[in-house]
């Protein structure tokens, strides 16, 4: 059975509905809200809850075809989004029932690939993150201890114990600086300066680890995606594994909609294209169509002359582009493939017009 049309919400629409619901939850906490407006907002929440019930039904129906494992996060979020407000309505007699709809905060997570990506980054970088967090803990405790020793006699009400001094240490180490507790002695102020600098370093380390982790993970995903595309081009099946890795790094995937002009006659050409899927039309005097596995744009790269013809997408086309410098690299690492491309270019140049 296909998805039910009413409940097949796209990810952005899902996020929008959740945002409207959460704004209604927030508005309902305003104490002097008029009775009519309050009723309207409650009806709105009830409407969103009905939509989420329908979505849950759809999720449960499609999980049979797509597998429970795949859909587990979506099922869990959809079940909670329906059950938590329902349980609050049935069991909680207070006026705070609508607050439980705040569980819809989870809704945007159900379809997001970003959170899966973040999970992988945190797992990959766990050792480094734990290392920096340990340093943070050590500096934090050390700062609280030092502040306690230095300031306890000057401000016993604020630095009278290590737990009390810990609040100042957190606020200073994170460079937030509320200013509610400040050291009075000269040495205490020197300590505060040192701790702030440590804090900046520690947060920079955290940010650096996460940024590198995200970059690596995105690069890995791109590599795998391009690898799968490269596997669909028969020409590359002749490559050895080392050359294949090199070419996967060099190729840039791109999808163009039907009707797009990919290269225009007379332009300078700095790249050639391999067709993974779809068809293109080459506007030679007798137009030629090229399909999956073919390539084009090689003539300008080889001869250095302007593009010999305009090439446009007949259908939506999935392409891999190879820049001129990378083509030189391919010529060196795989002369066999470069020869095939050169021979094809020669044939195309001298191609007799079709009858
Ligand atoms: P280039 O000249 O760089 O840009 C236009 C491309 O169209 C060209 O490279 C070839 O890849 C392709 N092309 C030109 N003529 C033909 C042909 N007769 N048959 C197939 N493809 C062609």
Q: In words, what does this structure look like?
A:
The model is unreliable at 1-7 (pLDDT under 50). The two termini are 51 Å apart. The strands form two sheets. Strands 1-8-3-6 form a four-stranded antiparallel beta sheet. Strands 2-7-4-5 form a four-stranded antiparallel beta sheet, with no helix packed on it. The chain has helices at residues 11-27, 35-66, 68-91, 113-124, 126-151, 156-159, 162-173, 186-231, 241-250, 298-303, 324-333, 335-349, and strands at 252-256, 261-263, 271-277, 280-282, 288-290, 295-296, 311-313, 317-323. α4 (113-124) crosses α8 (186-231) and α5 (126-151) packs antiparallel against α8 (186-231). The chain is built from twelve helices and eight strands. The protein folds into three domains: 5-110, Voltage-gated potassium channels (Four Helix Bundle (Hemerythrin (Met), subunit A)); 126-217, Helix Hairpins (Orthogonal Bundle); 234-349, Jelly Rolls, CATH 2.60.120.10. With 355 residues, it is an alpha+beta fold. Residues 263, 269, 282, 284, 288, 296-300, 307-309, 311, 348, 351 line the site of adenosine-3',5'-cyclic-monophosphate.
